[in-house]
Write a structure and sequence with these properties.
Length: 336
């Protein structure tokens, strides 16, 4: 999934030369990437181990529900169905599909979790495919099985269904965000009040660092193959996510194809190297919107984010300079 992250966790103290981590951390692997939980307060080893077990169990449960890389997952089973029946779904899957549907409508279809068949066709899915540009005729055929309107989630009935048997759901653009929110919820329940959670670049902060300051993160520039930190943002009790067109690309005949698909064209987004960062109440929303803004592109994405009062930053690379657009709601988070 995530080939590189678009954030850099900054040392919370200015004593950057300190060899030991400033905060106690819990680390692990999940969703094809890594996670880090930074805690502001010291914690006994035994308590930290117990917390790590709870976090790993929760992340494993999310994978069992939502991974398209596990053929036995709840989502893979649902994808395999050929019928249009309502089927009972787990709480987490319902919650994510319901949010996905709202964000699809709000983003005018830019965010669409039914892009699964196109993700596979372009070689970004779980199955290995030789990465090459598909024929137009094949693209036209496959795009017929895409459309968020063909997927229904009814949280009150606890059920989901296909309205077109061909659709295939891919939650890679939202599941990491949801995972971050769930880890944050575990920490809250365990009485931990100052933390920063990160899964593959998607974040959620609460409280302050050990020094009593807001958590700060560096957002990387959309530069291929290198890590270049641009803006630095402060996070309150919020989530943030960044998506970009430079992190996982197919290259053919000198053209670069990103892993984010525009559902309207059935092709990878075509604008210049770009990154979109969103700060929201939940990381799940931030994650989905960051992907949606990439699809919409710098102009339309910025206009929609501004109109909706979203905290968003869109960075476009042109040569060695960067065009940075920051919505009013995002500006307050900028540190430098
Ligand atoms: P990453 O997973 O690399 O952090 P994103 O959150 O932007 O980046 O998710 C990109 C992934 O989401 C793609 O690899 C693909 O599986 C899926 N995807 C691609 N295009 C869309 C889209 N328009 N809407 C929803 N999901 C998408
Ligand atoms: Mg996303």
């Amino acid at each position: 999934m995530k080939r590189r992250t678009f954030i850099t966790l900054l040392a919370a103290s200015s004593v950057a030369a300190c060899a030991r981590p400033v905060h106690p951390t819990i680390r692990g692997l999940t969703m094809g990437t890594s996670y880090v939980v930074e805690l502001a307060a010291p914690m006994e080893d035994a308590a930290r181990t117990r917390l790590a077990e709870l976090i790993d169990a929760e992340l494993a449960a999310i994978n069992r529900a939502m991974s398209t890389y596990d053929p036995r997952s709840e989502l893979s089973q649902f994808n395999g169905r050929q019928d249009l029946q309502w089927v009972p779904a787990s709480q987490g899957l319902l919650e994510v599909l319901n949010s996905a549907s709202l964000i699809s409508t709000a983003s005018q279809g830019a965010f669409d979790v039914t892009v699964g068949p196109l993700v596979d066709l372009w070689g970004f899915g779980p199955e290995y495919r030789p990465r090459r540009v598909p024929d137009d005729a094949v693209i036209e055929r496959v795009r017929k099985s895409v459309g968020y309107q063909h997927l229904q989630a009814d949280p009150s009935a606890g059920a989901i269904r296909k309205r077109d048997s061909r659709i295939q759901v891919d939650l890679c653009a939202i599941a990491k965000g949801y995972g971050v929110d769930r880890v944050a919820m575990i920490l809250d329940r365990q009485g931990v009040h100052d933390y920063l959670v990160e899964i593959g670049g998607e974040l959620r902060a609460r409280g302050t660092t050990a020094a009593g300051r807001p958590w700060r993160v560096g957002i990387e520039r959309p530069v291929e193959g290198r890590h270049v930190v641009g803006e630095i943002v402060a996070l309150g009790n919020q989530g943030s996510a960044t998506s970009g067109t430079t992190e996982d690309v197919v290259e053919q005949d000198g053209r670069h194809y990103s892993h984010i698909i525009d559902p309207k064209t059935a092709r990878p987004v075509e604008h210049p190297a770009m990154a979109a960062s969103v700060i929201a109440d939940t990381t799940m929303e931030a994650d989905a919107w960051a992907t949606a803004l990439i699809v919409l592109g710098p102009e339309r994405g910025y206009s929609l984010a501004q109109a909706r009062g979203l905290a968003a930053m869109l960075v476009t690379a042109s040569g060695s300079t960067f065009d940075v657009r920051v919505t009013d709601a995002f500006r307050a988070h900028l540190l430098g």
